[in-house]
Amino acid sequence: xxxxxxxxxSQDDKGKVLxxxxxxxxxxxxxxxxxxxxxxxxxxxxxxxxxxxxxMDVEFIEQGYYGSTKYATYEKKHCxxxxxxxFHAIMHCLSDKVAxxxxxxxxxTGLPFIIxxxxxxxxxxxxxxxxxxxxxxxxxxxxxxxxxFLVRNETAKINAKGEKHIKYYMCMRARVYKDKKVDTLxxxxxxxxxxxxxxxxxxxxxxxxxxxxxxxxKVYKFVEEHNHDLVERxxxxxxxxxxxxxQLPKHVIHNMSKLNLGPVKAFNVMKTCFGxxxxxxxxxxxxxxxxxxxxxxxxxxxxxxxxxxLDEKKTAxxxxxxxxxxxxxxxxxxxxxxxxxxxxxxxxxxxVISFDATYAMVFVPFTGIDNDHCNVTFGVALLASEIAxxxxxxxxxxxxxxxxxxxxxxxxxxxxxxxxxxxxxxxxRHRLCMWESWIPAxxxxxxxxxxxxxxxxxxxxxxFFGQVCNSKATLVxxxxxxxxxxxx
Length: 488
Fold this sequence. Notes:
There is one protein chain. This protein has 4 domains: about 90 residues, no CATH class; about 110 residues, no CATH class; about 55 residues, no CATH class; about 170 residues, Nucleotidyltransferase, domain 5. The chain is an alpha+beta fold. It has 15 helices and 15 strands. The relative contact order is 0.06. The longest helix has 15 residues. The strands form 3 sheets. Strands 9-10-13-12-11-14-15 form a 7-stranded mixed beta sheet, sandwiched between helices.
């Protein structure tokens, strides 16, 4: 005991530890790694009677040592586990392959504690004073960003007056999740909680604790040691605190959405334009979350927002027309709109029209052909169903808006369309798509029928709008996509 009380390390000019030295009485005692190896004969092999590494690790921990056991020997011969622990501890001090004796190791991970290397200006100090908890939290978050870890806003202790007295801020990896035991054979077991992701908590002890004294908050405990790796500088932009959407990416997401480009494509465009992930200030997750938040905000007011938008267009454009109807539960069942340009197109080119409904979304465009054999739109509608009553409502609104019946209507063999056309377009000749009738002579006596004998024009228009929209889009998104396509 006297030796260890006065022992010191003998080092060379470069700081390498050569031996443990102490003078006991008048005799100098020197312990080197070679002496331990030879005198104690702990490295001889050939004996099957050995310690298991797990057993040795437990023995070391019970003795109060938490260092690496990589360089320990495990033969039982010649010594006890306690003596081997002493040998290993001394070898750890003398070895140039491991950390110095001043380095501490975490008993839970077996890794050395990590102390962040940051400037003193941003590091918390004992007895620091803060006027509010917000200032304290902001300071610790700034320190955490520089170090490379996240801060958890932990609980506070309340005094007898019901006021906050002590406040804790801890590393995000503090504490550990407790596994909930579930008896899978028990039929009465109602809940079975299964984590979908691996827990990254390591029971880290790094923390900042402040206490309320004389009208201010004072730091009275600060632990800066972490038992896990910290995020390096090149990867700090992946920290959640560094990932946030500014106004620019929000604007990009909104404008890309008009072209039916999702948030992931918007992120890839920004990443390419800015030169890398770190310059976007957010990841794909934030882009997708922002788009989801917009859809959640729209929610059940989707149809109401579209109708309000059309009403605002009616106010700004007096010749703009729209109409809609709802069911007994006030749910939107049909919506039709037609702007001034569509009305002019109909009065000039509306002798022969065609309309057809898409399959994924009941989108019904009224289509014709101009003098250049190009498609023109006379109006569009969104329907909740393809029944006769719905089409009757649609054609009634269409006639009210455009003011006259077409000479020829070309559709497919939909019986609901046929019933609605015969009821509303009494002066119009209804012709089926030539590909479905297979009788070209069917159109021989129709004026201008050479321009449109099939519904391929309408199907082409459906395909065009389908490129800038999808069946999963909200009504607000569809309206935005449609108007973008028309302006193009």
